[in-house]
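Input.
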Amino acid sequence: MVADTKKEVERKLIICDIDKCNGCGLCEFYCAISKEKKINPKLSRIRTVRIEPFFAMSIACRKCETPVCRDACPRDAISIGEDGIPIVDKDKCNGCGWCIEACDFGAIRFNFGTKVVTACDYCKGEKEPWCIKYCPKKALTCETLEAAGAELSKRVFVRILGELEEFAKKT
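Output.
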């Protein structure tokens, strides 16, 4: 058996804490300013989703282990970098949108100005993504799914424990 010499890259994602996110959409504005130098949230690579009155959250590229956006592209315009980030070849992309339809997270966007698709690159070359840096509620972090899951499990446990204490006081 030959050992796999491919270096395993830690898959950190932009994670949104729905308990903190208020749906302001500033992450979209800062992303558009960072990438397109325009104040237009339609040019953003992150999406704010609001399901009022229940919650709001922002969604960026999930760096899928099996990237359906790449597989759906009939022109092979999307490749995946070593860091898991989709790279769109603007010369090959004709804007057909198949990758947009294939993405379960809505993380691929069509740019009506350039007529090609865009995806979050986690502000490659910057210290941290602008959406995280400028989120007024500090709802966005960049971490592994395992770390985010562990933190969520801890918060759920604390919440349940608090509810049990309240229940005990009433009885």
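The helical segments are 26-36, 68-72, 98-102, 130-133, 145-170.
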